[in-house]
From TrEMBL:
Domain named Peptidase S54 rhomboid: residues: 47-105, 169-253
Keywords: Hydrolase, Membrane, Transmembrane, Transmembrane helix
GO molecular function: serine-type endopeptidase activity
Protein name (Swiss-Prot/TrEMBL): Rhomboid family protein
Organismal lineage: Bacteria, Pseudomonadati, Bacteroidota, Cytophagia, Cytophagales
Family classification: Belongs to the peptidase S54 family.
Alphabetized InterPro entries for the sequence: Peptidase_S54_rhomboid_dom, Rhomboid-like_sf, Rhomboid_protease_S54
Pfam families for the chain: Rhomboid (PF01694)
Cellular component aspect of the GO annotation: membrane
Species in which this protein is naturally found: Algoriphagus alkaliphilus
Subcellular location: Membrane
Length: 263
């Protein structure tokens, strides 16, 4: 595996590993500077569309992305050439960040409208619904408050606390960063499936061979499912994964159409 590693894959692996070590053991502030924040956040900077893809939440996050690059990247680099593989990685990573930011703005606006609806008519049942939809942001104490508020729906003190709780959620949502090369990796996966659809890959769990097109197809369906289910306790940016798949598919499709450039 390591003997066949190609130059661009090797450099991407080294950069990601070095950045992870520096950000976690030398300059932790890099995690705050280089993560991708909500566009309306005070922490947002345009360069984060590039830098976020070199940051990772923990070792396993880094390992899973780099392992995928190591498995699928070398053959793609041999086939596409170093320049096109690098373009694929960067365009899918940046594109995933841009599309995810647009999606985040849409989701934030929906939540903001719901908070305004509650403030116009402070209904405990509606508050409970918002708590359940965003339960990943709450401490367990808020569920005790939900019961108290339901028993005292007209109490101004409970209404004020409920409004402050929802405003706090808006602040948390607007300042929640995204990190990781998963969008870029998903672009690599879809490119592999499009260029080598019938290549047999051997899974570890379950131990069985599967063609690349089926493996990536299942990944894509699973990602789409998670985007629509939108589990509030899930901190994985599934829409960024889906965005990387879409950007990668469009890029490779256009390369395949332009035969003179592709081969």
């Amino acid at each position: 595996m390591f003997r066949n590693i190609t130059p661009v894959v090797q450099n991407l692996l080294l950069i990601n590993i070095i950045v992870f070590l520096v950000a976690n053991f030398v300059f932790p502030v890099l995690n705050e500077w280089f993560a991708l924040y909500f566009i309306q956040s005070a922490y947002f900077k345009p360069f984060q569309f590039l830098t976020y893809m070199f940051m990772h939440a923990d070792f396993w996050h880094l390992f899973s992305n780099m392992f995928g690059l190591l498995i699928f990247g070398p053959l793609l680099e041999q086939f596409l050439g170093p320049k096109k593989l690098f373009i694929l990685w960067m365009v899918c990573g940046i594109g995933a960040g841009v599309l995810y930011s647009g999606y985040s703005m849409y989701e934030y606006k929906k939540l903001e409208d719901k908070v305004l609806t509650f403030e116009a008519d402070p209904d405990p049942e509606y508050f409970n619904k918002l708590v359940l939809e965003n339960r990943g942001y709450f401490s367990p104490e808020v569920f005790d408050f939900v019961g108290d508020f339901s028993r005292n729906p007209e109490d101004p003190m409970f209404i004020e606390r409920a409004e402050k709780t929802l405003q706090a959620i808006l602040r948390l949502r607007s300042n929640q960063p995204m990190v990781g090369a998963s969008g870029a990796l998903f672009g690599i996966l879809v490119a592999f499936a499009m260029l080598f659809p019938n290549t047999q890959l051997f899974l570890l769990f379950p131990p069985m061979p599967v063609k690349a097109k089926y493996l990536v197809g299942v990944y894509a369906l699973y990602t789409i499912y998670n985007v629509f289910v939108n589990n509030p306790t899930d901190n994985v940016a599934h829409f960024a994964h889906l965005s990387g798949l879409v950007v990668g598919a469009v890029l490779v499709y256009n390369w395949k159409k332009d035969r003179n450039s592709f081969y």
